[in-house]
Design a protein that fits this description.
The complex is a heterodimer.
Chain A: E1 3-6, E2 16-22, E3 29-30, E4 35-40, E5 45-49, E6 54-59, E7 65-69, E8 73-78, H1 84-93, E9 120-122, E10 124-125, H2 154-163, H3 181-189, H4 197-209, H5 227-232, H6 246-261, E11 264-272, H7 274-286, H8 301-315, E12 321-324, E13 327-330, E14 336-338, E15 340-342, E16 345-347, E17 350-351, H9 359-374, H10 380-383, E18 388-392, E19 411-425, E20 428-442, H11 448-463
Parallel strand pairs in A: 5-9, 14-18, 18-19
Antiparallel strand pairs in A: 1-8, 1-10, 2-4, 2-7, 3-6, 4-5, 6-8, 11-20, 12-13, 14-17, 15-16, 19-20
Helix pairs in contact in A: 2-3, 8-9, 8-11
Chain B: E1 4-10, H1 14-25, E2 30-34, H2 40-45, H3 47-64, H4 80-104, E3 108-111, E4 113-118, E5 126-131, E6 146-155, E7 159-161, E8 174-175, H5 177-180, E9 189-193, H6 197-208, E10 212-216, H7 228-240, E11 244-246, E12 250-256, E13 261-266, E14 272-277, E15 279-282, E16 286-288, H8 295-298, E17 302-303, E18 306-307, E19 320-322, H9 333-348, E20 362-364, E21 369-374, H10 377-382, E22 387-393, H11 398-403, E23 409-415, E24 421-428, H12 431-434, H13 436-443, H14 448-453, H15 463-472
Parallel strand pairs in B: 1-2, 1-6, 2-3, 6-19, 8-15, 9-10, 9-15, 10-11
Antiparallel strand pairs in B: 4-5, 5-6, 7-16, 12-13, 13-14, 17-18, 20-21, 21-24, 22-23, 23-24
The chains are: A alpha+beta, B alpha/beta.
Enzyme class (chain B): oxidoreductase
Protein name (chain B): Dihydrolipoyl dehydrogenase
Pfam families (chain B): Pyr_redox_2, Pyr_redox_dim
Chain lengths: 470, 479
């Protein structure tokens, strides 16, 4: 039987992705482990590995196609000894896999998924993976392609009939998204019965994805001015149009949401860096060398900032928390994200347990993160989560700025350049190296005094940096 | 030696080796550790060798009743050592087969006793120490004692016979399944403690071979997990064969003399009696092998002697998984295999579902055979279902009569409201091969309608499965 290759879900939240590149041509032999294609997701580019052997019979979705829904048919592999052209023909005319929701990728607790990781993912194969996750709140139920066949077990059909549940409005969780009895019972319990408008909404959804109608801009960001309105302000030849990539859309969506949902307030503080600079020099001078003669570590000011934020969070435990709908999640260890600017956007890889890690560990981890971020090879679990982030624009000469909190985090520290300034000490003007930092706080989690306590703890550590060594 | 595996499975029983092979198929660098035998208890001291013994008993039984079929067999007898030899040969052959399968899939076999030292943290893999074992010689090509590292560690260490204090098996007079499987001679008399699948299979085997057998069961019903009606029919058949059965009875004391064991048995009425037998088989269940694995140090959550998992094989310690008997009941090989596959596919990131433990079939290979899946009639009622019950007797089936097997019953239990098949229970010839039809139906969530619309081939025993469904809805033809 030919194997249908489906658009894989590369992260738990991925709904669609761009088919960036095919690395195999039609007719190429495919072995398990071969890289078939590159998929560009919200933020990263991932390679899709084959888990079957055979011949790539047909490429259904050409490279360069944007916004391919997860679980859509993207290619067909003919198994060993199978007629390639028959497989291609058969698969091509096969009903397009209904827009099933993303397979529930397992939660990535402690490297759960890392073996499959290394920037590679195997695809969702029709006979293996694509079961359904629960419908996301508010999302239109997908399998109800209007008029199309609804796959449901006999028992599910009977219960639906008895209970008056419209199967077209039920999300299937069985193999291939088939509706099973439990789905109908769940749908009934959640009151999703007889949802007449839902099928229609679902039917329109696929169309909506492509030409960016007014209701749902392709960026997924809440609608501001429409495309026409914006264009109306400018001369036609005054601009060029730049299509949005996954990262740009994500940044637009997430940060707009953050500004609208999280009530921000800002706390600014000056930190004197003289002691830190001195310590940094001593530590860097003490670094051993590896076999190539390169120092084993080279600490940056930002590494100290990350460490100080990590420690400060654990010293002010109430601030080491995030907002979660109807409660607050409080953490034991500090997860500190660090904004890394790359061409066309940014990543915020997260340093886990920044409170516990040594400065050299943090420093080396950051170097690795930054390198891989620039190559877009970070794994989703490496840039998801975090309680706070550090955004440092000091290297651009910025003195002070405020940053937008990156959900689900509850704060972000905007760090400016360290520069010589005149400060007053013991009533006398004197010169010190000073860095201004501004913490944006989510007021749902942090009140002013709590935020100030966190900032004070941070300042204390920066100005007495020996505290970060023990 | 210190290669890092993606997946290291501890225990090469039916759960462990299947897990390892599936892991290798998914592209993981995989190893499996065992201290005694590839294929585990199932293949070496359980499911498989007992089936070989029971097959000998079955043929012996037919030979004794040859005249029923118009045949004659005179001076029918047996050679106990040859029966055991055949049984061991079957295990040996399959044991070698497992070795080949592992090799073919490039799974490394490591020989010895494994202890988990640590689990994977960040980029640091977990560590497993394997100590030399004297239990059995390593198979060819196996790696030896040493320190191994793996990103994911799966415990598949299985279970062992439960020992009751004061009645501990001594391997000479008080047996577990190990000794019961390799008798030097058939004992004249035998006391079987426990009437689950293991106890009943041995009772059936030894009775057929001419041993005086008494079965003692603590609960009021033999085969306690089976439907009461089926268990009652089984009891009648066993008693007709000459097996003495005491239910609601407890062995309170066992005394050993030179040639016999004498058990004091207290009935539910409080009266005591003493029964002597040459041997006693302790078949009072099994307990998980959770010791000496390093679980306490890692803080792994356990419950009543088994490891607690989340249904996808994950323990409370990230990077550590458990499947099969050691991960809790039902302790069946097919459950272990299925759990193992779910576990590694979950690690791979494939979309998996926890197993529905309500749809795991159970088979007992006594004579007559017993097979079941889903809820018993009593359990279904207890859970509040209005039930429709179908029954079809072997006596109404042409193939059963032709086989000379007119005793038996196929019982189906439906939810009257939805037509959901809640359970199926069978007793009689070959029912262990039939049950799978209903398991498929339940897994596909068939209602009575699809089962009625399904064409069953004639003449087969499977027609009774159809008729039983028809009976539940008052449409039965052949009764």
């Amino acid at each position: 039987m030919p194997i249908n290759v489906l658009m894989p879900a590369l992260s738990p939240t991925m709904e669609k992705g761009n088919l960036a590149k095919w690395l195999k041509k039609e007719g190429d032999a495919v072995k398990s482990g071969d890289v078939l294609a590159e998929i560009e997701t919200d933020k990263a580019t991932m390679e899709v590995e084959a888990i079957d052997e055979g011949v790539l019979a047909k490429i259904v979705v050409p490279e360069g196609t944007a916004d391919v829904p997860v679980n859509d048919l993207i290619a067909i592999i003919a198994g060993e000894g199978e007629d390639v052209s028959a497989a291609a023909a058969g698969g091509g005319s096969a009903p397009k896999a209904e827009a099933k929701p993303a397979p529930e990728a397992p939660k990535s607790d402690a490297g759960q998924n890392t073996t499959a990781g290394d920037g590679h993912m195997s695809y969702a194969r029709v006979n293996e993976a694509p079961d359904a996750a629960k419908p996301s709140a508010g999302g239109a139920p997908a399998p109800a392609s209007s008029g199309g066949r609804v796959f449901a077990s006999p028992l599910a059909r009977r219960i639906a009939k008895q209970e008056g549940v419209d199967l077209a409005a039920v999300q299937g969780s069985g193999p291939h998204g088939r509706i099973i009895a439990r789905d109908v019972q769940d749908a009934k319990a959640s009151g999703a019965t007889k949802a007449a408008p839902a099928p229609q909404a679902a039917a329109e959804a696929p169309k909506a994805a492509a030409p960016a109608p007014k209701a749902a801009p392709a960026g997924g960001a809440p609608a501001g001015l429409s495309l026409e309105q914006v264009k109306g302000f400018f001369q036609k030849d005054a601009y060029e149009e730049v299509p949005l990539d996954g990262m740009r859309k994500t940044i637009a969506k997430r940060l707009t949401e953050a500004m609208q949902v999280a009530p921000h307030f800002y706390l600014t503080v000056d930190c004197e860096l003289d002691a830190l600079m001195k310590l940094r020099e001593t530590l860097n001078a003490s670094s051993g060398k590896d076999k190539d003669g390169k120092p084993l570590f080279r600490l940056s000011v930002n590494d100290f900032v990350i460490k100080a934020m990590g420690l400060a969070l654990t010293r002010v435990p109430a601030a080491n928390a995030v907002w979660a709908e109807d409660r607050i999640l409080r953490f034991k260890h500090a997860e500190v994200g660090v904004a890394v600017a790359i061409d066309g956007g940014l990543f915020t890889p997260v340093i886990r347990r920044a409170d516990e890690k040594t400065l050299s560990t943090i420093s080396n981890e950051m170097k690795d993160f930054a390198a891989r971020a620039r190559a877009k090879k970070l794994k989703p679990e490496e840039y998801q989560g975090g309680v706070t982030s550090v955004s440092n624009l000091g290297m651009f000469g910025i003195k002070q700025f405020t940053a937008v909190i990156n959900p689900p985090q509850s704060s972000i520290l905007a760090v400016g350049a360290g520069e010589k300034r005149v400060v007053v000490k013991d009533g006398q003007p004197t010169v010190a190296q000073v860095m201004t930092a501004t913490l944006s706080c989510d007021h749902r989690v942090l009140d002013g005094a709590l935020g100030a306590e966190l900032v004070a703890a941070f300042k204390g550590l920066i100005e007495n940096p020996m505290g970060m060594l023990v | 030696m210190s290669d890092t595996y993606d997946i290291l499975v501890i225990g090469a029983g039916p759960g462990g080796y299947v897990t390892a092979i599936r892991a290798a198929q998914l592209g993981f660098k995989t190893a499996v550790v065992d201290r005694e035998h590839l294929g585990g208890i199932c293949l070496n001291w359980g499911c498989i060798p007992t089936k070989a013994l029971l097959r000998s008993a079955e043929i012996y039984h037919y030979m004794q009743h040859a005249s029923d079929y118009g045949l004659s067999a005179k001076e029918v007898s047996f050679d106990a050592s040859a029966i055991v030899k055949r049984s061991r040969g079957v295990s040996g052959r399959l044991n070698g087969g497992v070795g080949m399968l592992l090799k073919k899939n490039k799974v490394d076999v490591i020989w010895g006793e494994a202890t988990v030292e640590s689990v994977a943290k960040g980029n640091e893999p977990g560590k497993v120490t394997v100590k030399e074992t004297k239990r059995a010689e390593a198979p060819k090509g196996a790696k030896g004692a040493g320190s191994y590292s793996a990103k994911h560690i799966i415990l598949a260490t299985g279970a062992r016979p439960r020992a009751i204090p004061g009645i501990e098996p001594d391997k000479k007079q008080i047996w577990t399944y190990y000794e019961a499987m390799v008798p030097e001679a058939m004992p004249k008399s035998l006391l079987v403690m426990g009437s689950g699948a293991i106890g009943i299979e041995f009772a059936s085997f030894y009775r057929t071979m001419g041993t005086e057998v008494t079965v003692v069961e603590l609960l009021p019903q033999i085969l306690p997990v089976e439907d009461a009606e089926i268990a009652g029919m089984a009891r009648k058949r066993f008693e007709k064969q000459g097996i003495k059965i005491l239910t609601g009875a407890k062995v309170t004391k066992v005394e050993k003399s030179a040639n016999a064991v004498t058990a004091t048995i207290e009935g539910s009425d409080g009266k005591s009696q003493q029964i002597s037998a040459e041997k006693l088989i302790s078949a009072v269940g099994v307990v998980g092998n959770i010791e000496n694995l390093g679980l306490e140090k890692l803080g792994v959550k356990t419950d009543r002697g088994t490891i607690v998992t989340d249904g996808l094989g994950r323990t409370n310690v990230p990077g550590l998984y458990a499947i099969g008997d050691v991960a809790g009941p039902p302790m069946l090989a097919h459950k272990a295999e299925h759990e193992g596959v779910i576990c590694v596919e979950t690690i791979k990131g494939l979309h998996t579902h926890p197993m529905d433990k309500g749809k795991i079939p159970g088979c007992t290979y006594c004579h007559p055979q017993i097979a079941s899946v889903g809820l018993t009639e009593a359990k279904a009622k207890e859970q509040g279902f209005q039930v429709k019950v179908g029954r079809f007797p072997f006596a109404g089936n042409g193939k059963a009569i032709a086989l000379g097997e007119p005793d038996g019953l196929i019982k189906t239990i439906f939810d009257a409201k939805t037509g959901q098949l809640l359970g199926a229970h069978m007793i009689g010839a070959e029912v262990t091969e039939l049950i799978q039809g209903y398991v498929v139906a339940m897994t596909l969530e068939s209602t009575e309608e699809e089962l009625m619309h399904t064409v069953f081939p004639h003449p087969t025993l499977s027609e009774m499965m159809h008729e039983s469904v028809l009976d539940a809805y008052g449409k039965v033809i052949h009764t």
